[in-house]
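Appendix B. Raw example, untouched.
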Amino acid sequence: MRIALLAHLRHPIAPPFAGGLEAYCWHLADGLTARGHEVVLFSSGDSDPRFTLEPVIPVHHEKSFPGLEHRGDPGLKAHVDAAYAAACDRIAAGGFDVVHNNSLSRLPLERRRTDAVPTLTSLHVPPYDGLRWFVHDSPAPGHRLTATSAAHLRAWWPDGAPPEAGILHNGIDPASWPHAERGDGSAVWSGRIARVKGAHHAIAAARRAGLPLTLFGPIEEPDHWETDILPHLGGPIRYGGHLPGPVLAPELARASVFLFTPCWDEPFGLAAIEAMACGLPIAGFARGAAAEIVGEAGCLVPSGDEAALAGAIHEALAIPRRVPRERVLRLFTRDRWLDACEALYARLSASPDP
């Protein structure tokens, strides 16, 4: 198939990944290409050149409009809207069999766009007012939508999802996150260092539990880093940097427990399954999709309760390391995810014209 992958533009689609959405789009492009599809990645022009790129904007907008993603900046909005509108026009004229839309933009959801090329839109964030109405208005014979978990699907459609919407769990390549038989007694955390990810709670809980902790990930919110993280580093609490997957995997695998601390309704939790593949049980907050993703591989407590999280650390340490690995192999592999994507593309391509 000839597939257009439309990405979010805040960061480049390139390792080391700024977050789960960037990892999702990169692995989707990589996996579909390996399966013989003709893939064109519509993303910022500074994304990974190994792919066939069609730049939507020359450079990711966090570089040209730093810190403005969530501030309603009119200049950034106009910049992104114009870029996506032009990209959608090029997709419509490009002879594509299907579009996989991961943009978080309202423009690819317009009926005239989805009538032109069969479209799969994958939702990656909780519902918000700037996108909710457009999503709800968009299901059509040529447009299907996916959420990353049952909890995420319920959040978007609390009264029941339409038949065109369903669940598409994320997946990882287990070979890229090799299992280790035992850990060194430490805790580990990885993700974007932003308040909604809760690294500050992980620090407090690790101290209460008496375990050393290493944090990994990009510093997304410098003020949060300076106020809530940096003053607590030192001794058993350290920051290991923002590492690419092949370097991060052994760092995760040598630990004994992974702390998963979402302070928002996490739609999935890619960092959790990466750690689980390495054999780490999870101690974390029961927020968003956490219970659905972690299951028997961890111990979850109410969000924000650092004392309870400290107790959950010790409970999680008793879970055999084969349990989290086996859960990933059963539910969250890259092959399973790509199979589901291809099945959705095939259904869209076979749909009668609207």
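End of appendix B.
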